């Protein structure tokens, strides 16, 4: 019997990639489009236009399609939650149960809501192919010893910030932290941090020790490298096997063109 997957599609390229992989694995994909042009439609049996403020149609479609598994994909902006006013009873009820916008609160409500419906929330990693690199130097340049020191410092700070649901990206130069990502997102944090640090900074992205990959897979991509290059950064480092690289070939080529050391590490380099 064919299984129906509810793919919650945020912004970016992951929805299309994950929809394709889910279909390859034998799922019937129902795409819930919370963002425009997700690219998932080409791999979906049905596309349901969706909005954060209107959860009743989402719940109805999950039941109608007999969905047994839900998969989040792409970027869902916390800013959208801050600006969104609930317009249906289902959203209001979920908001009341959450009590606040801390990740843990929202996640617990989602898990409870899906659990009551007999739906499992799935880990995203099995649907990502080979995009989570192990410990390696991805580009042409290896960081210097001083740059590795910045990377190690950045990993420690980024992991701590992520554990407290603050952000996953930090900017470090000479072991001084010039920016910690907050609600503005990775690219804006890089621009803010490199403006303060000056040229030569390390951009580091990591997740907390207990990160739940059912809700989010952190990513870097060409846009990350472009922002780092604009700010004169020397290194972009991601936590090995825990951060996804979008458009890996393009990302690596742009890093090489900007003489940025692009590395995937657990923190022992240099």
Question: Which helices and strands, and how do they pair?
Answer:
Layout: E1 3-9, H1 14-24, E2 27-33, E3 46-49, H2 56-64, E4 69-73, H3 78-83, H4 89-98, H5 103-116, E5 120-121, E6 136-137, H6 145-163, E7 169-173, E8 176-180, H7 186-197, E9 202-205, E10 219-220, H8 222-230, E11 235-239, E12 244-245, H9 248-257, E13 261-265
Parallel strand pairs: 1-2, 1-4, 2-3, 4-5, 9-11, 10-12, 11-13
Antiparallel strand pairs: 6-13, 7-8, 7-9
CATH topology of the largest domain: Cytidine Deaminase, domain 2
Provide the number of structural domains.
2
Rounded to an integer in angstroms, the radius of gyration calculated over CA atoms is: 19 Å
State the end-to-end CA separation.
52 Å
Supply the number of helical segments: 9
Strand content: 15-25%
**Mean pLDDT reading:** 89
What's the arrangement of strands in the largest beta sheet? 6-13-11-9-7-8
Main CATH class of the largest domain: Alpha Beta
Q: Find the structural class using helix and strand composition.
A: alpha/beta
- Tally of strands: 13
List low-confidence stretches: 98-102
Shape: elongated
The biggest beta sheet reads: 6 strands, mixed
Portion of residues within helices = 25-40%
Please give the CATH architecture of the largest domain: 3-Layer(aba) Sandwich
Order of helices and strands: EHEEHEHHHEEHEEHEEHEEHE
CATH superfamily of the largest domain: LpxI C-terminal catalytic domain
């Amino acid at each position: 019997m064919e299984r129906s997957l509810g793919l919650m599609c945020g912004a970016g390229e992951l929805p299309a990639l994950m929809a394709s992989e889910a279909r390859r694995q034998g799922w019937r994909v129902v795409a819930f489009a919370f963002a425009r042009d997700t690219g998932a439609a080409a791999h979906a049996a049905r596309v349901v236009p969706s909005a954060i403020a209107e959860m009743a149609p989402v719940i109805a479609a999950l039941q109608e399609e007999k969905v047994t598994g839900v998969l989040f994909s792409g970027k869902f902006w916390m800013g959208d939650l801050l600006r969104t006013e609930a317009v249906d009873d289902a959203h209001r009820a979920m908001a009341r149960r959450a009590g606040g916008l801390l990740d843990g609160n929202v996640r617990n409500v989602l898990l409870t809501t899906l659990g009551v419906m007999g739906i499992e929330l799935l880990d995203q990693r099995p649907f990502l192919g080979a995009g989570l690199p192990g410990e390696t130097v991805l580009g042409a340049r290896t960081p210097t010893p001083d740059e590795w020191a910045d990377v190690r410092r950045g990993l420690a700070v980024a992991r701590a910030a992520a554990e407290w649901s603050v952000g996953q990206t930090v900017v470090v130069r000479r072991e001084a932290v010039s920016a910690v990502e907050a609600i503005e997102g990775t690219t804006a944090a890089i621009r803010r941090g490199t403006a303060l640090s000056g040229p030569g900074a390390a951009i580091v992205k990591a997740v907390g020790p207990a990160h739940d990959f059912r809700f989010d897979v952190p990513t870097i991509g060409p846009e990350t490298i472009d922002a780092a290059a604009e700010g004169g950064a020397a290194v972009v480092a991601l936590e090995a096997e825990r951060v996804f690289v979008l458009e890996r070939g393009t990302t690596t080529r742009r890093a090489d063109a900007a003489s940025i050391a692009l590395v995937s590490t657990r923190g022992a380099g240099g």
